[in-house]
Design brief:
alpha/beta, seven-stranded mixed beta sheet, 11% strand
Amino acid sequence: MHICGFDMTSAPARRKPIVCAQCRFDGTVLHLQELTRLESVQAFAEHLAEASRRCRDGEPWAAGLDFPFGQPLEFLHEAGWPTEWSHYVRHAAGLNAQDFAQVIYAVMANRPAGKKLIRRLTDRAAHAASPMSLAYVPVARMFHVLAPVLEAGGADVVPFRMGSGAAYLPQAAGGGQGIQAQRDDAAAPQAVPVPQRPVLLEAYPALLARAVLAMHNGEGQPAGGGRRKATAAAPYKDGLPAQRVLRRANRERLLRDLPEYTQRCLGITLRMPQALCEAMVQDAQADALDAVLCAVQTARASRLPDWGFPAAHDCGDTSVCREHLERMCRTEGWIAGTGLSGLPALSGLPGLPEKFRA
């Protein structure tokens, strides 16, 4: 199976391209083969089109992309936008960059201090920033530029469009628990259909980086299924001149410990050529490293039913879980590797069908 991880940007160019970590995965061994740089949105769209051709030729292909596929339900209501994913993505695509930003600023202006930026359910679970953010890491601009490419393409976009069904690789016995794993993957391997379309997952490399860097710090339970402490990963990107030596050391540590983590906790053997590892250490922006982390998250998801997307029985209150799942599937999206535990009840929020209310 072809597995790719993408470190995305809203304005790819020679100086700041989209970086793709291209891998092969046999269900147990994930082999990093190449780091590819895409210098335009058109090049990214063409890469997805090539993936579609591979799938039609019987070569399964899946990828994790580190940008928000969706927006929060509350934002959509306050902006007066549709709440179905494909509808509001098309609506956003019809706006230029300035008009799109003005919609976000207008919603923020009407919200109280401290609650200007709204997070999706999955952002809360992953401790991720709001997809409305236009500053620092401008993930809102990534959504505006890149989500229409996904919506217009022919790929399965988890969880909005999952026409090809569940995961396609046989599960390897004893595959570990992983990061907030949603299923027991110790089931016996079984035959599964070959997908006819690429599968795209929203990945979040910080989720994996936190777990790896915490492995030898006494945080979390690397070999078990307990919940991990929700702390930020030790910074490993860029920084001021005085910070760069430490951040380079953190990149080295992350690359050193990542194969151990994937083997012990995910049941995946990760193989990375030394030359590519050295290039990732040298890359202060850590774009290639983030792409590899996205690929690992995708490989993990490929071994789970429905790519690890949670089911209503994954938390105690089924009615609450149904609300969460409806909101994720229809409107907001889902970050691979996140679950439902600990999220608040949603009854009373607008936009949910009555049958999904508590």
